[in-house]
Amino acid sequence: MQKPSSAPSAADDLDTIAKAIGLIVLQWGQSEQALDLLVAMLWQSFGGKGCTMRIPIMLEPKIKFLRACVSQEHLLAAEVEVANDLFDRFEELSSLRHDLIHGAVASISPVDNAFIFAKLDVKDGFHYYREVRIEAEDYPKIIDKLVALGRNANALNQRVFEVMKLHKPRIL
Fold this sequence. Notes:
Elements: H1 8-45, H2 59-72, H3 80-102, E1 104-105, E2 114-123, E3 126-135, H4 139-167
Antiparallel strand pairs: 1-2, 2-3
């Protein structure tokens, strides 16, 4: 990992990467919070307790739980395709988010117009190093995908909430 320089360009690069990763973290938090709200509605109001023994906390179990609940709840039949697409996008973007959050900045300044992260993975009892690159031109697309993820998760929550209000008013 490079040592931060006192040069203005290095400070600017550090500020840029910190803001970029910070925005990814904030957008992911917004998106996953919406997913948690969906878990709560399905757990409390749509028989989710029959899908698993515990409220899922981690992303992979949440998505597994949500897929099972949405697909078996006849009141949500119209949402199955949209929900599964949303869950697919959560899975897709979670890998990048995981790499950035659990990786380390390998270069404060861009290298060939990309920020470089170092990631150690464990497989079969061994550590493996891999490089994660965020190309400058890809960053706006990543943010757009995260913003859409949060927006679509909130929209699905609203539709599920409307079904809940209509068909399960005693719960509210």
